[in-house]
Amino acid sequence: MIKLFKFLLNSEEQKLGQALADSNITGAEVVGRGTIVVDGRVIASSTEFQALKLQAKKIINSRESARI
Shortest CA distance to 36 belongs to which of 25, 22, 52, 48? Predict the structure, then answer.
């Protein structure tokens, strides 16, 4: 069945599908052709997001320190 769906998708759609399957994101839902919805709480609680949030906070704090 999966092979049938791969046949119907172009290479870009296949790459996107594979990237989503390989990610550790849960709770993704396909709601229409080309539309994927993911719960923001799932993203915000991921370790990757938390690490990026910490990096952003360090950048902002360093810029604020430079102004003083």
Answer: 25
d(CA 60, CA 68): 13
User: pTM of the prediction?
Assistant: 0.52
User: Using one digit for the tens of pLDDT, what is the confidence trace for 10-41?
Assistant: 788 778 778 877 777 777 777 877 787 888 88
* Closest-CA residue to 14 (of 23, 2, 25, 31): 2
